[in-house]
Amino acid sequence: MIEIRLFAPQDAEQIAQLFHETVREINVHDYSINQVRAWAPDDIHFRNWVEVCANRFTYVADDGGVIAGFGELEPTGHIDCFYCHKDYQRCGVGRQIYQAIEAKAVELSVRRLFTDASITAKLFFQRMGFSVVAEQAVTRRGETFINYAMEKLL
To answer: Which residues lie closer than 8 Å to 136 by C-beta, 6 or more apart?
Structure first.
């Protein structure tokens, strides 16, 4: 059974690996090889993930010690990183993480959740009740990506 819990520092290495593998193996269906390499470069720094995840409400889907996904909520209502492990796609893990995030947002009296969703994640967020505000072109490490500014009023 998958447990949704808050991030712990010992999760950082698995989260960094999950992010890298998901972008490289799942998002590559919607973005070019060069784009996913810019998005998830080979030089992952685990310590950076500890700092980022610890300073947000980062929810982790823990399947007996295997991290199946994670999502980050900032106190402003911004959902930053939100990824499901490549082996846990389309089996409800993302929905469970999202429900924890939304419950925390309600607890914090956040009135609006917002995110910059990839082409890959757009449909998921629409299923969670988000609307597209705008299509955006963003540049990372010399590559330009299409993503979507999305929001949900609570």
So the answer is: 116, 146, 147, 148, 149
